[in-house]
Amino acid sequence: MRCYHICKLPGRVMGIRVLRFSLVVILVLLLVAGALTALLPTVKEDKMLMLRREIKSRGKSTLDSFTLIMQTYNRTDLLLKLLNHYQAVPNLHKVIVVWNNIGEKAPDELWNSLGPHPIPVIFKQQTANRMRNRLQGFPELETNAVLMVDDDTLISTPDLVFAFSVWQQFPDQIVGFVPRKHVPTSSGIYSYGSFEMQAPGSGNGDQYSMVLIGASFFNSKYLELFQRQPAAVHALIDDTQNCDDIAMNFIIAKHIGKTSGIFVKPVNMDNLEKETNSGYSGMWHRAEHALQRSYCINKLVNIYDSMPLKYSNIMISQFGFPYANYKRKM
Amino acid sequence: MRCYHICKLPGRVMGIRVLRFSLVVILVLLLVAGALTALLPTVKEDKMLMLRREIKSRGKSTLDSFTLIMQTYNRTDLLLKLLNHYQAVPNLHKVIVVWNNIGEKAPDELWNSLGPHPIPVIFKQQTANRMRNRLQGFPELETNAVLMVDDDTLISTPDLVFAFSVWQQFPDQIVGFVPRKHVPTSSGIYSYGSFEMQAPGSGNGDQYSMVLIGASFFNSKYLELFQRQPAAVHALIDDTQNCDDIAMNFIIAKHIGKTSGIFVKPVNMDNLEKETNSGYSGMWHRAEHALQRSYCINKLVNIYDSMPLKYSNIMISQFGFPYANYKRKM
């Protein structure tokens, strides 16, 4: 009898009951899921860990990509050749070309006519041909990292990929391919030099105290830091049309209280200046260039009333690249 | 009249006044000095900075020196030869020899008869010949750093001096000369290997995820950390008489949440096992040795319910040693 009564009812009543039951089940499941989410442990991450996870999860986000800043003067043939190379480097977000050819139009049209390009390239026309133009705060710059390269320097992609990964582990230092040092003398006057100069202190090997910015990765906030420096520093760079990189090393060493940079030994890095048709051969060929560098060091010590540069003898290479580079030579 | 009155008084009264005046002046100066001291800025130092300053100021203190722990079994001729080398390494505080020759007296008398020695050497007689004896907490150990070396391994002094300086910059990691890696396979089973094994992931070069402790510097508190590990870990090492170094890398990677070690490329490191008269050739010659290492990795993943090892491709060398090692090969 009951069955007849129930069976007579159309699917609608049964349907409603099933529907209600389903809704209740779903609601309960949602509540349980919500409760479980609330119970998940809050992960306490430090900055580096967060950086690494961002890197893994966000592809080419502004945390795991970098902006190439390349200043150029009178070597447009080299510039365009280099842009063709750098535009395809992994993790590159954007290129900012600091166009120091005053009065001459930047090659935007030529660039666009030869598109499409993997990433945006911005040509920033400058009002005066200043060395420190490349250290401005660029509104177009979105990434935490800057790759700064001179307009005659070709750095291989494996070198860049590796050095960027090293910078990500040491984001407060200049991670680059060209080490230099200051040398103290008994008179208290400093000299600027490269490998061949007397290494300070005793012990084996050599030391460096600067990593030149013209082939390096560094934190983009250091551009703002540079802007905030005493006018005397900017004036020194303008007077010499030199030493912006020495100044940056002073500023960063002073800021972080340790050595300003880490040297990564390049596997494949070349200077293309001999290949330019412009006849222009770069600032470092000026007769007074090296002496100016020593001059700048002593002027900066004077301005900051201290010698903040610190020595390091850490040389980083990529394990296993070139193949078997960890093996000893027989 | 006044003068006469005053002049008549003996030096005593004038003396008292001068005395009082002097005391007041001294008190005032002390108060001012005290106030100035209170006003001095409190220097907020991070651990590394403190470490560096300690290093500069305290000579061979327990912050800037290390303890050599060398475990030995059946190779006393090599041991003594090596001790003659290591005893003179700069910044060495003390040597602890873990004497695994059960029933055989340690060569204390011989050692003492050939004194004086630059540093103390303690021979610790063991009750059983266990691989993990060298990972005990030794009461004689006073330094923050341990240098752990196998009793057949000769590491040159420049290599040690440099690697120690690197450890001081990365005191939470194993800084050593022998890199190894774990290799994941599609089955989820791991394998243990050296350079020749397939590098995980894409890109150039190789990776390592372990730095073997038998030629390395690490923080002495990791010995306590090892003692606190699950009994299953100790049992694994006892069963295999192997893998204490793999376990240490697991433990440290898990503890610090990043790669357990940093590889420093040795310039001059040799294995002397062929030179022993004992006929004993070391554990790694056992047929099952390499397979045991893979076995240990998978057992440890099981025990810890995770794979904490992390890859790195950072290879550190000493800038300028050997001479001009920063130059590219032509």
Automatic annotation (TrEMBL), chains A, B:
Just give the chief location class: endoplasmic reticulum
- Where in the numbering of this chain does the Glycosyl transferase domain appear? 66-321
Q: Can you name one GO molecular function term for this protein?
A: glucuronylgalactosylproteoglycan 4-beta-N-acetylgalactosaminyltransferase activity
Protein EC: 2.4.1.223
Bilayer topology term: Single-pass type II membrane protein
Q: Where are the transmembrane segments?
A: 18-43
Q: Which InterPro entries match?
A: Glycosyltrans_GT2/GT47, GT64_dom, Nucleotide-diphossugar_trans
Q: Name one GO biological process term.
A: N-acetylglucosamine metabolic process
Cite the entry's keywords alphabetically.
Answer: Disulfide bond, Glycoprotein, Glycosyltransferase, Manganese, Membrane, Metal-binding, Signal-anchor, Transferase, Transmembrane, Transmembrane helix
State the needed cofactors, names only: Mn(2+)
Cellular component (GO) terms are: cytosol; endoplasmic reticulum membrane; nucleoplasm
Q: Which reaction does it catalyse?
A: 3-O-(beta-D-GlcA-(1->3)-beta-D-Gal-(1->3)-beta-D-Gal-(1->4)-beta-D-Xyl)-L-seryl-[protein] + UDP-N-acetyl-alpha-D-glucosamine = 3-O-(alpha-D-GlcNAc-(1->4)-beta-D-GlcA-(1->3)-beta-D-Gal-(1->3)-beta-D-Gal-(1->4)-beta-D-Xyl)-L-seryl-[protein] + UDP + H(+)
Q: Name one Pfam family in it.
A: Glyco_transf_64
Q: Where in the cell is it found?
A: Endoplasmic reticulum membrane
Q: Does the keyword Nucleotide-binding apply?
A: no
What family, per the record?
Belongs to the glycosyltransferase 47 family.
Q: What does this protein do?
A: Glycosyltransferase required for the biosynthesis of heparan-sulfate and responsible for the alternating addition of beta-1-4-linked glucuronic acid (GlcA) and alpha-1-4-linked N-acetylglucosamine (GlcNAc) units to nascent heparan sulfate chains.
Q: What is this protein called?
A: Exostosin-like 2
- Write down the species: Saimiri boliviensis boliviensis (Bolivian squirrel monkey)
